[in-house]
């Protein structure tokens, strides 16, 4: 289903996204700050600063389900069309887990049409974020594996909470799958080829100190200062004239974006045929069961 159709489905009577409002904040935010609510994404906009804080709230682990991807896409599209917003900070509504990455239940026990729809939505969100004209910051206030790490890598800078429990990286190989070429390219663009090769083959999840050392994040700060630091760094990015910053960003990212645009359909087909293999379904199911067993 294309984004428009998925949005329609989410707006059907009964959907909690229906009637989402952008009103004056009940609390928090500067004077004139506005807060918009959807089911899985919370937006706190500060028009005076030109910045919106987009908070993930898809319990229990902020996984990127099809619905979460769709709501995030809608929210970003709205912000892109809002002339008062020049920068966005992505964060988790509750500290602890920034995002557990792609929702594994979307990749297990479904049919090929579902896998294709899901993968298209992952591509769409990446394209929207990686090509965004806005300045994007990640205030990483929790653990950040795989798809969660990818989200943060689409941003222009990353601030990570100084908590050794919070790790970040593309750990796909540890699950028995692998990071697609555009996940890999996004990481190469951030930390370079050799560090990416090592990180991806070993499926490394970096502690904050390691992430800072390898350049996966730009700053590690005390946990209670992640969002304030991300906002203060944002003011540096917004001090640059938009057109100059945007042209530079496009120049740096265009080749990577073009690769996916050129191979988009093939990438979907590759994903569907890989994820549908019995052997891959088995490893994903074992991984999910291990996660679930912990709690039962
Ligand atoms: C074209 C390309 C072709 C081929 C490429 C092929 C494949 C590549 C495709 C995609 C790349 C994949 C990207 C991904 O993002 S895969 C997801 C990777 N994520 C992880 O490995 C994280 C898994 N989760 C955890 O490690 C922990 O849950 C976490 C540390 C985040 C939190 O720990 P905590 O102890 O706080 O919570 P849990 O008890 O573990 O979890 C609670 C609850 O949530 C469920 N859960 C966790 N993570 C996920 C997830 N990613 N998706 C769905 N569900 C998840 C977990 O099972 C628990 O459920 P329940 O027990 O039923 O409450």
From TrEMBL:
<comment type="similarity">
    <text>Belongs to the enoyl-CoA hydratase/isomerase family.</text>
</comment>
<comment type="function">
    <text>Key enzyme of fatty acid beta-oxidation. Able to isomerize both 3-cis (3Z) and 3-trans (3E) double bonds into the 2-trans (2E) form in a range of enoyl-CoA species, with a preference for (3Z)-enoyl-CoAs over (3E)-enoyl-CoAs. The catalytic efficiency of this enzyme is not affected by the fatty acyl chain length.</text>
</comment>
<dbReference type="GO" id="GO:0005759">
    <property type="term" value="C:mitochondrial matrix"/>
</dbReference>
<keyword id="KW-0496">Mitochondrion</keyword>
<protein>
    <recommendedName>
        <fullName>Enoyl-CoA delta isomerase 1, mitochondrial</fullName>
        <ecNumber>5.3.3.8</ecNumber>
    </recommendedName>
</protein>
<dbReference type="InterPro" id="IPR001753">
    <property type="entry name" value="Enoyl-CoA_hydra/iso"/>
</dbReference>
<keyword id="KW-0276">Fatty acid metabolism</keyword>
<keyword id="KW-0443">Lipid metabolism</keyword>
<dbReference type="InterPro" id="IPR029045">
    <property type="entry name" value="ClpP/crotonase-like_dom_sf"/>
</dbReference>
<dbReference type="GO" id="GO:0004165">
    <property type="term" value="F:delta(3)-delta(2)-enoyl-CoA isomerase activity"/>
</dbReference>
<keyword id="KW-0007">Acetylation</keyword>
<dbReference type="GO" id="GO:0006635">
    <property type="term" value="P:fatty acid beta-oxidation"/>
</dbReference>
<keyword id="KW-0809">Transit peptide</keyword>
<dbReference type="Pfam" id="PF00378">
    <property type="entry name" value="ECH_1"/>
</dbReference>
<comment type="pathway">
    <text>Lipid metabolism; fatty acid beta-oxidation.</text>
</comment>
<keyword id="KW-0413">Isomerase</keyword>
<comment type="subunit">
    <text>Homotrimer.</text>
</comment>
């Amino acid at each position: 289903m294309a984004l428009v159709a998925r949005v329609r489905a989410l707006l059907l009577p009964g959907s909690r996204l229906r009637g989402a409002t952008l009103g004056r904040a009940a609390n928090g935010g500067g004077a004139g700050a506005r807060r918009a609510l959807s089911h899985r994404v919370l937006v706190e906009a500060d028009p005076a600063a030109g910045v919106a804080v987009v908070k993930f709230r898809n319990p229990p682990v902020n996984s990127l389900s099809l619905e979460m991807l769709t709501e995030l896409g809608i929210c970003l599209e709205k912000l892109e069309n809002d002339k008062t917003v020049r920068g966005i900070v992505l964060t988790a509504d509750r500290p602890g887990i920034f995002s557990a990455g792609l929702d594994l239940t979307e990749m297990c026990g479904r049919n090929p049409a579902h896998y294709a729809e899901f993968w298209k939505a992952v591509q769409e969100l990446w394209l929207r974020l990686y090509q965004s004209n806005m300045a994007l910051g990640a205030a990483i206030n929790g653990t950040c594996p795989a798809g969660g790490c990818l989200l943060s890598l689409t941003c222009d800078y990353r601030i990570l909470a100084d908590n050794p429990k919070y790790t970040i990286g593309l750990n796909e190989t540890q699950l028995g799958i692998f990071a697609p070429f555009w996940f890999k390219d996004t990481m190469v663009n951030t930390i370079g080829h050799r560090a990416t090769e090592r990180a991806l083959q070993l499926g490394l999840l970096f502690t904050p100190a390691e992430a800072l050392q390898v350049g996966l994040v730009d700053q590690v700060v005390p946990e209670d200062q992640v969002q304030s630091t991300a906002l203060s760094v944002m003011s540096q990015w917004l001090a640059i004239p938009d057109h100059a910053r945007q042209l530079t960003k496009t120049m740096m990212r265009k080749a990577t974006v073009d690769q996916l645009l050129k191979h988009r359909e093939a990438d979907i087909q590759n994903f569907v045929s890989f994820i549908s293999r019995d052997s891959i379904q088995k490893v994903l199911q074992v991984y999910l069961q291990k996660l679930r067993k912990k709690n039962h």
